[in-house]
Design goal:
The structure holds two protein chains of two kinds. By secondary structure, chain A is an alpha/beta fold. Chain A is 32% helix and 16% strand. In chain A, α2 crosses α5, α13 crosses α15 and α13 packs parallel to α16. The longest helix of chain A is centred in the first third of the chain and has 17 residues. Chain A starts with a helix and ends in a 16-residue tail after the last helix. Chain B is α/β, with parallel strands linked by helices. Classes of the chains: A alpha/beta, B alpha/beta. The complex binds iron/sulfur cluster. The site of iron/sulfur cluster (SF4) has 13 residues of chain A, from α12.
């Protein structure tokens, strides 16, 4: 029978299947972080259970770790308690942990791929909805709740109901200045925040094929913002090349066996998807969000929409609430929106390529005096790599802040938060009310738009930069 | 887990769609390492507004939340379920739930009921005109009943059985530990392991 990529990975992890019950799937890799694991470890302890496969489990500290003064004890006592709980739990249950200050610490979704632990055809889970990131390798990767974290720790499996599959084909080539972030923001605007609900998305087509692994991770990362638990891209030479020299990549004969299997991981030509969406890359432009859910986005050249133009009453309602929260007036050109803070980082756009792309634009220039820019590498390794390439100097010389790795302002659990009414252009993935700090207003953007915005002070794309007027 | 067979209580109309888990429980509340005490964080930003539905005395004791479409989007945090339960909610009704939230709620014994938007609107109208309207969410009969209205809802047999028995998933899975052992024996050698650590 012809199968899609997702169905093949499902088939290859089926431990048990019975009529009227969910399938039991084996989990190849379980990623942990401090926020969603404490209660799960507690559950194990109460029931007298062990972690079945510590050797398929890895933990990092990322969500509420500070990005400055990391050699000092964490000032926020509650954050510190949560980090301490993870450290104690990891020690007690024999789990590998990359703590703050460790060279492999970082955002869980940056660390897994970087170590070569995320590989094609695997099942990967984590108590974090952006686990979909790992789908860029052709893995079936999705976020789970804390009860499921406990379940995976105890059994290395999960009972799951079959997903439906949706093909998202992006034909053609991206124009210069348009990135993988713009692809995914356009996809979400098109299918809506609930459009992917119940589906595994498979991204395909020429524009996806030509993306780097970093770009593919950005696309898969935000599948959840379209309501889908997972997004996948079939592995190819780009994938193998990325993996080859990674610490945990298979070696020797294992590598050959792995590549032989990985090469079978494509949707069969006759495979049927339950739904299909097609986009043309050459029609895409730099995209930004104007509202309070990631589906409320438009090309940067557009104006803030008028809620009255929505025929659906729910949407109209949501749009006017969003404008009120965001402090925006319908009809304002998006390009005129003044920004207070630019955040470059997160598991969506905190990888080395994102920092390079942004630095390229900032090089030799100064950010607008009216704003601050925070650059937070996705992992300690990314930070080191950036420093080796001199990117830290570029950011610092431009007037930006160069921080330690972590989730930081993506969710504002640590001190990196927006103040009430403060407006950000952020390369992260969620523009929900208060996501980056109570009362904060978020516009989601690509790293290129982030850099151009930092220079001009209002939402801008690189094409808006007129070298005569910028910098000094 | 507490068994869920049927629950009767008053409703709280939450006329908002796309209620994400960052609204249900903002991230600053996620630092606790226990499963209780999250009620204070429930909708904490919105609760600062005196007009917010939970601040209205007539809705203060509701146990059935009736929400707009796409409830529970965003972060996977199960704290959202705990916050609703800690506050006293036993069931949430909406026309559409985000997948992870739905999974979390049904695992934790918070019954999430999907009804067509028109039924949700009808319940809103009923509880707004009379906040003391009792709503029965009957899992056994797969029905929501209020005033003189009865509407059926769908839920698969397996999940219904698990909730009605109050069974925990881990215990159920461990009945099949042999199948897990067998699967592990056949796993290919090239699959990566986190231990020993390589850097
Ligand atoms: S960077 Fe943001 S989205 Fe990614 S794991 Fe951290 S908090 Fe979640």
């Amino acid at each position: 029978m012809a199968l899609t990529l997702a169905e093949k990975v499902w088939r290859d992890h089926l431990v048990r299947s019975a009529d009227g019950e969910p399938d039991l799937l084996y989990i190849d890799l379980h990623l942990l972080h401090e926020v969603t694991s404490a209660q799960a470890f507690d559950g194990l302890r109460l029931a007298g259970r062990r972690v079945r496969r510590p050797d398929l489990t890895i933990a990092t500290e990322d969500h509420n770790t500070p990005t400055i003064d990391i050699d000092k004890p964490i000032a926020d006592l509650v954050s510190r308690a949560q980090i301490d709980a993870l450290r104690n739990n990891a020690a007690e249950f024999g789990i590998r942990l990359h703590s703050l200050g460790d060279a492999d610490q970082g955002i869980v979704h940056v660390v897994g791929p970087q170590l070569g632990l995320t590989q094609p055809g695997m099942t990967v889970v984590c108590g974090d909805s952006h686990t979909s990131t790992h789908g860029a390798f052709g893995a079936l990767a999705f976020g789970i709740g804390t009860s499921e974290v406990e379940h995976v720790m105890a059994t290395q499996t999960l009972p799951l109901k079959k997903f439906k599959t949706m093909a998202i084909t992006v034909n053609g080539k991206l124009k210069p200045g348009v990135t993988s972030k713009d692809i995914i923001l356009a996809v979400i605007a098109k299918i809506g925040t609930g459009g992917g609900q119940g589906y595994v998305l498979e991204y395909r087509g020429e524009a996806i094929r030509t993306l780097s692994m970093e770009g593919r991770m950005t696309v898969c990362n935000m599948s959840i913002e379209a309501g889908a638990r997972a997004g996948m891209i079939a592995p190819d030479e780009t994938t193998f090349e990325y993996l080859k020299s990674r610490p945990h990549a298979p070696q020797g004969a294992d590598w050959d066996a792995a590549v032989a299997y990985w090469s079978t991981l494509q949707s069969d030509p006759e495979a049927k998807f339950d739904a299909e969406v097609i986009l043309n890359a050459d029609e895409l432009a730099p995209f930004v969000t104007w509202g309070t859910n990631p589906g409320q986005g438009l090309p940067l050249t557009a104006n803030v929409p008028n809620p009255n133009e929505y025929s659906d009453p729910e949407e109209r309602n949501a749009a006017s609430r969003a404008l009120e929260y965001m402090g925006l007036t319908a009809g304002t050109p998006l390009r005129d929106i003044k920004i207070d803070t630019v955040f470059l980082g997160s598991c969506t756009n905190g990888r080395i390529e994102d920092l390079r792309a942004s630095a390229e634009i900032l090089k030799g220039k100064k950010i607008a005096p009216t704003l601050r820019m925070l650059v937070v590498p996705g992992s300690a390794k990314v930070r080191l790599q950036a420093e080796a390439e001199g990117l830290d100097k570029v950011f610092l010389d431009a007037g930006a802040e160069w921080r330690q790795a972590g989730c930081s302002m993506c969710l504002g659990m640590n001190p990196d938060q927006l103040a009430v009414g403060e407006r950000s252009a952020s390369t992260s993935n969620r523009n929900f009310e208060g996501r980056q700090g109570k009362g904060g207003r978020t516009h989601l953007v690509s790293p290129l738009v982030a850099a151009a915005t930092a220079l001009r002070g209002t939402l801008s794309s690189p094409a808006d930069l007129d070298s005569a007027k910028v910098g000094a | 887990m507490e068994k869920f067979i049927s629950h009767t209580g008053t409703g709280v109309p939450l006329r908002r769609s796309n209620v994400d888990t960052d609204q249900i429980i903002p991230a600053v509340w996620l630092k606790k390492i226990t499963r209780n005490g999250f009620e204070e964080g429930l909708f904490s930003a919105w609760r600062q507004d005196p007009e917010f539905v939970l601040n209205k005395p007539e809705f203060a004791h509701g146990t059935v939340l009736v929400a707009g479409a796409d409830f529970g989007t965003g972060s996977s945090r199960e704290h959202a379920v705990w916050a609703l339960q800690n506050y006293g909610f036993r069931a949430v009704i909406s026309s559409r739930f985000a997948d992870i939230f739905r999974g979390n709620s049904l695992k934790g014994g918070l019954l999430t009921v999907v009804l067509p938007q028109s039924d949700v609107e009808a319940i809103w109208a009923a509880v707004e005109s009379d906040p003391s309207t009792e709503i029965t969410v009957d899992l056994e009969a797969r029905q929501v009943r209020y005033a003189t209205t009865t509407v059926g809802f769908e839920i698969d047999d397996y999940t219904r059985w698990r909730l009605m028995e109050g069974l925990d998933d881990i215990g159920l899975t461990l009945r099949h530990v042999d199948a897990i052992d067998d699967f592990e024996k056949a796993r290919p050698a090239y699959k990566p392991a986190t231990l020993p650590a390589k850097v």
